[in-house]
Predict the 3D structure of the following.
Amino acid sequence: MTSLNRVVIEWSGSCVVGRAVTVLHYSASDNVAPPVAAIRAAFASQAAILPSGVSVQVPGSGDVINDADGSLVGVWSASTPAVVTGGGVGSPAAGVGACIGWTTGGIVNGAKGPRKLRGRTFIVPLAGNAYESNGTLTSAYLGSLDDIASQLQAAGPLAIWHRPTSATATDGNSYGVISHKVRDKVAFLSSRRD
């Protein structure tokens, strides 16, 4: 069993509909709170890519989970960082933005056999000037998103969690992130209720 600090980052603002969160997992093996100040700094350093009026709140507390079964094994706490407020220009497109792809060195058994464990973090919404006329991301935004990803990865032992295959299974696992990539492609968010 490995313990993971779950960091649930809340997004809010006029162009955010419903509850919007970004969930990150950091290793809790040393019983230290996750690097919330560094996570906040990653978003703050690139606040211009977030639409004006959008706020991102990194929490000051959260759950510690067992990666094998997802059970709650503790709680972490730290000083709550200040809110990051977007400063981007242009009307944002609803429900679209970018996706950071995370790569680990882990191999997990999937429905179709063994596969590499990867993860994704969506950065949605983005300011309206994030997009080229063909709908892809501008090179400036790609660079800013890569900077956020690099900072999140460097902040501490960032991990990807492979959930257990059922509610009673204990076959979950987690592996540390070894690289990332931001694709020059717009990512779409959808609800399970759509």
